[in-house]
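User: Can you predict the 3D structure for this chain?
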Amino acid sequence: MPTLLFYHKPVALNREAHKNLKVRSVPSFAYAAAINSVPLTVNEFAAAARQLPILFVPDPRKQPTPIALLGLQRDQNLFIEADGRWTGNYIPAFIRRYPFVLIDTDKPNDFTVGIDAAYPGFNTEVGEPMFGEDGSEGPGLKRAIEFLNAYRIDAGRTQDFVAQVQRLDLLIPRALNVQHQDGSKYNLEGFFVVDEQRLGKLDEKEAGALLRSGHLALIYMHLLSLHNLADLSSRLESRTAEKKSA
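Assistant: Here is the predicted structure, written as structure tokens:
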């Protein structure tokens, strides 16, 4: 899964080039309306699992990564309305960090703060300054950097979790098949889930290691979240009915 899904013009933040940059809040999630899934970190599992299905998909390196499924069609986020409102209970951090992002540099494990220059809230007239007159980071930028750094740390914990799940060979392919009352069907492939039978066959040593690491709890959050597919199906059915009646 691409890491800059809805960033149309990502650029590194520069103290000179962006010294007069200001950012105003744009109360709309329209930028993510055409995204049906986003990466999810393990510290989000508890909150996300209450409403969002948590699945695994291969990343660009063919390694599984957990995602929150937001829609059953390729270019549709069922939690964002036409006016840009988010109607779900939890907004994934991947979406909340926008329009800021960490961009890889030429050095290993080195990042710089970037922005989506296409974000409509950026300007030089109205909003919170990104930098002070002396070139120091403004309060808003400091908050964004703290959020990005926390997200990066959580991403590292997520990699550790996935590595253990892979080592134990717990993931199996899963296709999602949804059929509505009007007969319409939606088939999504390319997902992986933890296999409960393989999980149940782990010996005491491996099961104990999963428990002590906290990864067993994460696995059960993932498994419980799969029941949220019914909610996604209902959201799609309601949205389809609204379009037909419009």
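The longest helix spans residues 139-167. Residues 10-238 form one domain.
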